[in-house]
Give the backbone structure.
Amino acid sequence: MVKAKGVGAMNNTISLIIDDPMPHHHFYYLQYPDRVTAKGEPIVPAVPHAFLEAFCECIERYDIRGKFSVVPCPKGLGSVADSIDGVEPAVLAQWLNTVKTRVAPRFSLCPEMLTHAGAMELTTGVMTDENEAVWSNRQDRTALTPYIAKALALLREAGLFPTGVTSPWNFGEQVEDEYTVAIAEALATVCGRRDGWYFCRYFSHEPNVQPWVALDENGRRLVSIPGTVEDYFWQTILSGECSEAYVADLADHFITADGTAGDILEAVRQGTMPVLLTHWQALFSNGTWAGLRVLEEVARRVRKHTALHWRSFDEIMQRVLTNREFYDKVITN
Ligand SMILES: [Zn+2]
């Protein structure tokens, strides 16, 4: 647990974590094809391109910023750099182009390791039965570095410019000292970057949680940016609800309509940077788009009632690195 003392230079920052985006495939369906919503509807297998475009309109309208994952090899079905089973080449190209031209200006891009499923054998490209997060937690830098480098390289080959990485599940968390060295090495080798960021930790309802410099050695620096506001969007996947009242009620968890309460404001009052955590499937809401409407309402209320400023993970990283006198006060316990 890492905490920073007092309020600092970043206390008007808000950011948004989006985990699990992938072209065309609906990740929730890949994981749970047999589930049904509370209204008995089946899980839909694909996320139409129109949803990504609607997301872009929302972030452009409110200047929402944060980080956006791209799973390079969704469930081992292929790769964004080449082809993915079940995804038309034109659909893949269109998705990547929209991410590059409309998402990347506001959201720092990253791989969410390789498959977000089984660990991949790098020599053969074959996905094993063991979850890559489980695999990762008994590795050291010698195995983690090429694994992370592969994930970064696939995004680069797909025309994207990753500046950090996201940990699927608890990838690397139990070997974090080795993990951070491996991330820094992979970012330097594949992307030519001396500075980077990663998302691995999550603390909700905790006071004084700020990003911190997790690694600073050999001219390489890595900033850990934790999530701090829980994913209330998630329940839209299976609820089947999408009424105005439902959307407004869910937005209240983040910030109420009168701008007096909610977890975003609670975080700010406690000296914590509000970093909202959500998932692509939680905004898609099995096709109702209710989660995206909640995000839009939250952003509208944040703009109306607060002085908070959305920042990308690159922007947060830069601010942490240029305000070391504040962030070096972090206490690790
Ligand atoms: Zn994930």
In short: Residues 19-20, 112, 116, 168 surround zinc ion (CB under 6 Å). The radius of gyration is 19 Å.
